[in-house]
Amino acid sequence: MIIAISTKPVTSGSQWPSVNWANYDINPVRIDHDVEGFETAVCSYGTDLVSLQGSQKRYLYDPGRTVVAQSDHEYVTVGDLLAAVDRYKRLIAAVLA
Which domain of life, per UniProt (predicted)? Predict the structure, then answer.
């Protein structure tokens, strides 16, 4: 009832309010994938890599599981975190080589 009362001024007579998000597109982001031992995949989701300026290498890696990322039940196991330490070291070594 409180929600119905508080949204009534913006619903223009409709039972439910309408939410219009800003109209924007995120163009494909080219990501480097030249370090052996890392799986690659094409994904359809946003990333802040699009904001990076310059010609530096761009890698997108995290120790989590894509299927639960950004959900209310997202998690990372201790084993995944420990493995990530080595993988981040490998990425850094590849960039500095």
Answer: Eukaryota
